[in-house]
Amino acid sequence: METIELNMNVLWIVIATILVFFMQAGFTLLEAGVVRAKNSINVAMKNVIDLLITTIVFALVGFALMFGSSSSGWIGLDGFFLRGLGEDPYNWAFLLFQIVFAGTAATIVSGAIAERVKFGAYIIGTIMISAIIYPIFGHWAWGSLWNGEDQGWLEALGFIDFAGSTVVHSIGGWVALAATIIVGPRIGKYTSTGETQKFAMSNAVLAVTGVFILWLGWFGFNAGSTGIADVSIALISLNTHFGAVSGGTAALIISWVLDKRPRVEDILNGILAGLVSVTAGANILTPEFALISGAIAGVLVIFSLRLIDSVFKIDDAIGAIAVHGVCGAWGTLALALFAPIENLVRETRIEQIGVQLLGIGTAFVWAFGMGLIIYGIMKYTMKIRVEKEEEEAGLNVSEHGASISVLDTIVAMNEIAAAKGDLTKKIHYEPGEDMAELNEAFNTVLTTLNDLVHQVKTQTANVLSTTGNVLSLSEDSKQSASLQMTEIEETYSYVTQSEKWLEKEIEVENQVIAEIQQAFSSIETIGNQLNWIQKEMSDISSFVHEVGELNDDVHQKMSMFNENISKITNYANESGQMIDIITDVSEQINLLSLNASIEAARAGESGRGFTIVANEIKKLALKSKSSTEDIRKMIQQTTQETTAGFSEVIELSKKIDLLSTELSKMPKRFNTIDEKVYQVSHFMNSFLVTLERVNQDTVTIQGRRYEQQDSFKKMTGRMEQVYQNMKTNLDLTFDMVEKIKTMKKQNEQLQHSVSQFVTAK
C-alpha cells in the first residue's frame, strides 16, 4: 500500500511538473505576442535559456541553498551537486518540480525588460536569480518542505505562502522592477514632454494562446504544491480556476469603464493577476473568497499597470511587475484576511496579517535590493543594453542573427517606402516558404515599379529643364510688370494729387462765393439801414422844428413867470413891514401890561381885578408876538425859496435859450446828413448791381469747376481701375513665379527622390 501511495505521489508530482513545464511555453507565446515582431525570437530564446540555465544552476547549487539543512533559518548548507538525493526516488520528482518553479521565477524578468537588453546580460541575471535570489528567500519561507525538520526564519514565524505568490511571483516581479529601472525604457516609449507611447501587440492571438497555456499549467503549479496526490487537489484546482475567472472578469469591466472598450492586454493581465493572487492560499481559501481575492487582483492590476507606466515612467513591456509583484503581494496578504481562522498558523488574524506583511516586505527588500545591485554592477562593468540601431532594427537580428520571413518582407517594403530601396534587387526566397507567393508578387511589383521610376526619372529631367525655361520667362515678365506697375503708380499718384488740388481750389472758391454772398447780404442790410436813417432824420428834423416852436412858447411863459416872481417878492417885502409894525404893537402891549401889573400890585386888593385883566393882556401880547414871529419866519423862508427858485428858473431860461439857439441850427445839419446818406445809398445801389453780376459770374465758374471735378473723378476712377488691374496682374505674375519656383523645387525633390532608387535601364 505504501508503494502504491508513493507511486501515486511521484506520478502526481511528475504530472504537475509537466504542467508547470508547459507554462514555459505559455510565457513564450504571451511575451512573443505582446512584444513587437522584431523582438519575438529574442523573447522566445530567453524563455528557452531560462530552463537551460535554471535547470543546471538550481539543481546543482540553488536547491541546496533552498532546501538543505538550515543554518539558523537563513540558508541551506547541504545537498549541493545533487548529493543525498538518490536515497529516495521521490527526491527526483521533488527536485524536478522545484526546477520548473525556479524557471518560472526567472522567466518573469524576461518579459519586463524585453526588446532592449543584451542576451549575455540577461543570462547573467538569470544565473543570479536561480542561484542566489530565489533559493535564499525560498529557504526563509519553504525551508522545511524537503526534509521536514529545519524551518526558515519566516516559516518559523508562521508565514504562509502555499504555492509561491510571494516566493515565486513577487520575487520575480521585484527583480524585474529593479532590472527595468536600471536598464531604462525602450526607445520612443516616452516623449520629451513625458507622454507615454503605447506599443501595439504584434500578435494578440499568440498572447491569448499563451494565457490559456499558463491557465492550464497553473493547475499543476498550485495543485502540485501539495507534494502528494490526495483529495485536497480538488479544492486547490477549483480555487485556481475561480481566481483566474474573477480576475479576468473584473479586469474586463474596469478596462471597459476606463477605456470605453475591453482591451485585450488588460483582460489577459487580469486573468494572470487572479491566478497569482490565489496561489498563496489556494489550499485554505474557500471558493467564495478565492473569487473575491481574484476579483480584487483584477482591479488592482489595471490601476497598477497605469500607475507604473504613466506616473512612475517605468517601462514594463508585458506588465510583469503589476501582475507578479503587486498581485503576488496582494495574494499573500489576502489569505490572512479571508482564510478561515482555523487554517491560519497564528492564533489571531491580526498576528497572521502582521507576519504576512513582514514576509511581503522582506521579499521586496531582498529581491529589489539584490536586483539593483546585480543589474547595477552589470551596467557599469559591461554593455547591458543593445545599441540604438540594434534596438531599432530588433533583437531578432542583432542578438541572434535570426529573422522572420514576414518581417523581412515588411522591412524591404519599408526601405522602398523610405526611398532607400534598390529596385534592381529582389527578395530571395525558397519555394514552399510561407511567404513565397507574397515575395514573388512583391518582386513583380518591384519590376513594374522599376520601369515606372525609370520613366519618372527621364520625365522629371525634361520637366525640370522646361520649368527652368518657364521660370526664366516668368522672371522677365515679373520685372516688366513691376516697371509698368511703377509707372502706373506714379501716374495714379499724380492724378490723385491733381484731384485733391482741384477739390481744395473748389473749397476755396466756395468760401469766396460764400463770403461774397454774405457781403451782398450785408450791403443790402446797410442800404435798408440807410433808408431807415434817412427817414428817421426827416422825422427828427420835423421834431426839432416843433421843439423850437415849443421853446419859444416856454420862453414867453418864463418871462411872465419872472414878472410874477417879482410881484411876489414885493408883496413879501410889504408883508415884512407889516409884521414889523405888528411886532412893535405887541411889544407896546406887553409893556403896557407890565405897567398895569405894577400898578395893580400897588393898589393891593382893590387892584386884583385889574391885575387879572393885565395878565390876560400880557398873554395876548405874548401870543401875538409869537405868532408874528412864526409868520415872519414863514414869509422869510417863502421869500428865500422863491428867490432860490427864481434863480434856477433864470438859469433854466438861459439853458432853454441856448437849446433854442442850437435847435435852430439842427435843421440845416440834418439836411446836410440827409444829402450824405442819399449819396451813400446811391453808391451802395450801384455796388449791389456790380456785386450781383460778380456773384452770377462766380456761380458760372463754380459750375464749370464742378464739371471739371466730375471729369477728374471719372479719370481717377478709370486710373484706379487700371491700377487695380495692373496690381492684380502683378500679383498673379508673382504668384505664378512662386508657383513655378515651387514646381521646380518639387521637380528637384522628385528628381532627388527617384534618383535614390537604383533602377535598370
Write a structural description.
This protein has two domains: 2-388, Ammonium transporter AmtB like domains (Ammonium transporter fold), CATH 1.10.3430.10; 439-755, Helix Hairpins (Orthogonal Bundle). It is 81% helix and 0% strand. It contains 17 helices and no strands. The protein has helices at residues 2-34, 40-67, 89-112, 119-142, 153-157, 165-183, 204-223, 232-259, 264-279, 287-311, 320-338, 349-381, 388-393, 395-400, 405-417, 436-603, 608-755. The longest helix is centred in the last third of the chain and has 168 residues, at 436-603. 32% of the residues are buried.
Provide a concise account of the structure shown.
This protein is an all-alpha fold and 761 residues long.
Shape: elongated
Mean pLDDT: 84
Distance between the termini: 87 Å
Q: Count the strands?
A: 0
Number of self-contained structural domains? 2
Q: Helix fraction?
A: over 70%
Q: Judging by the overall fold, what is the CATH architecture of the largest domain?
A: Orthogonal Bundle
